[in-house]
């Protein structure tokens, strides 16, 4: 699965000597071939696998572009 979101919060958790990640997202788009709807208000993932979070650089707009 792949996720795109506007808000993300990553927490590293430990329990019984194991490390896992809790990822909370808001305003998200989910790519999963079995999912009928791609857009969700929020999603929470618990995983023992690696997690990569990347912020896409975007320019700041001083004014609204004309159409």
UniProtKB/TrEMBL annotation:
Give the InterPro entries listed for this entry: DUF2469
> Which Pfam families does the entry mention?
DUF2469 (PF10611)
Q: What is this protein called?
A: Protein often found in Actinomycetes clustered with signal peptidase and/or RNaseHII
